[in-house]
Amino acid sequence: MKNLLRALFFAFFPVFLLVSPASALSPEEVLVIANMNAASSKGLALFYMERRKIPKENLLLLRLTDQETCTREEYDEKVLPPVRRFLKEHPDIRAIVTLYGVPLRVLGPERSDQEKQRIETLKKVKESLKAKLKQTRNLSADAQAELKRKIKRADKAYTYSIRNLDRTASFDSELSLVKKKEYNLDRWQPNPFYLGFKNQTLKIGKSDVMMTSRLDGASPKVVKRIINDSLEAEKEGLEGTAYFDARWKYPGDNKKVSGYAFYDKSIHEAARYHEKKQILPVKLNDSQDLFQPGDCPNAALYCGWYKLANYVDAFTWAKGSVGFHIASSECVTLRNKNSKVWCKKMLDKGIAATVGPVGEPYVQSFPVPELFFKLLTEGYLTLTESYFVSLPYLSWKMVLVGDPLYRLNLKKNHGGGNAPDSNSG
């Protein structure tokens, strides 16, 4: 991954600089989905559509469980057919927004008997080797070492099989492939819009993908606040500070990095870019400790890691703020009042848009911070467009919560340019 982040951005970012404002997502290109079985879902959809001037015919009402998780059977029978019919009748639709009350997560299908048998066999092999190691006291050191290596390989094979059969996904990420009739549900599918896969041959093409996001939160009040704040920030301009919370010092321009280090460096690169361009005031924390309560007043942007399911109340969120925390399962619920996951708490506290996973996503499936925030603050692309070109995988865990039509408009006194005229009407 040497210099991948920098190479990706500077190779492809000029394309977006040349995009005309008219090419950004428009209200006519958005399908709004609400759940008739969930209180307030339809009303919030109509409220959003009126505020964004989305045509009334772009509303699709489904009848689904009002819980945060639905079965794969319900998704296949009650979601796919009506959405596909709608898209066939409205070929100009480019994006889908799901409303409060639509499930957050789709379970995977039942494992086949063959899959169950394979997992059970691998588990028995692993347990048998561990038992043998405990019972053999007279083995030589070399023999014991070899047995430990076999245990490690067996454990790896078992874990790999379990991970590869992970077919639970966020509702929205699965919905992004609604037009694709057949694809492998095991783990993820590469996103053809992601800049890192540009010029690669993928099984899924751009024409197969719908950009997705959701307007959701702990209550209808939170959802209305997200909608209103996004529109007001577009009109009045977003102002505040960009906070970036890395864990390690900047490794240097030519340092080869991967995994966690790749994303940590990407956080640094996002901070360096915004500081150099004077887009917003920037505060970078590169210590092991996270930002602490009171450290982040008037937060306009945020990206950091790693505090698992335990939000740190360090921020006061500016109206129209956008940010996400890189950690597992931070969008596993948006309703549980006792949960401290980052997505829910950030929305409760006033952020306008955030990103998070509904389960274990693995770090490489998060949006690349440098790409996401650079494209977002340029102001030409909407929130959902900036998300999709920086997101590596679909049919997976990630969720974007926020108004898909939201385009950042940064106040001139920060040194950043204004976004094109809002499509709020």
Q: How much of the residues is beta strand, in percent?
A: 15-25%
Structural class assignment: alpha/beta
CATH architectural grouping of one domain: 3-Layer(aba) Sandwich
- Coarse morphology: globular
Poorly predicted ranges: 1-7, 9-22, 413-425
- The helix content is 25-40%
- Strand order of the biggest β-sheet: 2-1-4-8
How would a crystallographer describe the biggest sheet?
4 strands, parallel
Question: Helix and strand succession?
Answer: HEHEEHEEHHEHEEHEHEEEHEHHEE
CA distance, first residue to last residue? 43 Å
Count of helices? 11
Q: Remind me, CATH topology of one domain?
A: Rossmann fold
Rounded to an integer, what's the Rg over CA atoms?
Answer: 23 Å
- Overall CATH class of one domain: Alpha Beta
Number of strands: 15
The averaged pLDDT comes out at 89
Task: Write a compact overview of the structure shown.
The chain has 425 residues and is of the alpha/beta class. Helix content is 37%, strand content 16%.
